[in-house]
Amino acid sequence: MSRIGKNPVIIPDGVKVELLGQLVKVTGPKGSLEFNAHKDMKISKSDNSVLIERQSDERLLRSLHGTTRQMINNMVIGVSEGYFKELEIIGVGYIAMVQGSRLQLQLGYSHDIFFDMPDGITITANRTEVKVDGIDKQLVGAVAAKIRSFRKPEPYKGKGIRYKGEFVRSKQGKTVGAK
Known about the structure:
With 179 residues, the protein is α+β, with helices and mostly antiparallel strands. The chain has 2 domains: 9-80, Ribosomal protein L6 (Outer Surface Protein A, domain 3), CATH 3.90.930; 83-163, Ribosomal protein L6 (Outer Surface Protein A, domain 3, Alpha-Beta Complex). The chain has helices spanning 59-80, 137-149; strands spanning 9-10, 16-20, 23-28, 31-36, 41-45, 49-54, 83-90, 95-99, 102-106, 113-116, 121-126, 129-134, 160-163. The strands form 4 sheets. The chain has a 4-stranded antiparallel β-sheet, covered by helices on one side. It has a 3-stranded antiparallel β-sheet with strand order 1-6-5, with helices on one face. The chain has a 3-stranded antiparallel β-sheet with strand order 2-3-4, covered by helices on one side. Strand 11 (121-126) and strand 12 form a beta hairpin. The model has no long low-confidence stretch (mean pLDDT 92).
């Protein structure tokens, strides 16, 4: 049995879970999300928990058991609390600002970078810090990774966009050798 898959998903107050065949709909104070589970996963709901069971010990079903449970758990957490990622911008003249539904980044290139926010994502920025908020854990992580990819931290001076608290190993620069 999967150690993660056999644990029930606890449903907090204010969150409603609907099971329509293999479609799981989770609605809460921050919004609603849907997930279409594999046809061989058995999803059942009791008073305040959701239990996921697999029909056999086939390799595919063993791999999907814990994943299905965690996807539903992430949806429950997302609609009740939400997810966020924080990014830091390090470098002289590197700034970020939000203009309507676009993030404008000045990262030392000859032009500014404009990033349109996807639906369900809120981005706030105050010059050197960017915060990505949303209810979908996967989408929040993907948007944060996309913003980071515009100027990854370089190993010599550490300039670029990094996750808050991320450690960037710095390399030694060139040395002048005497012959």
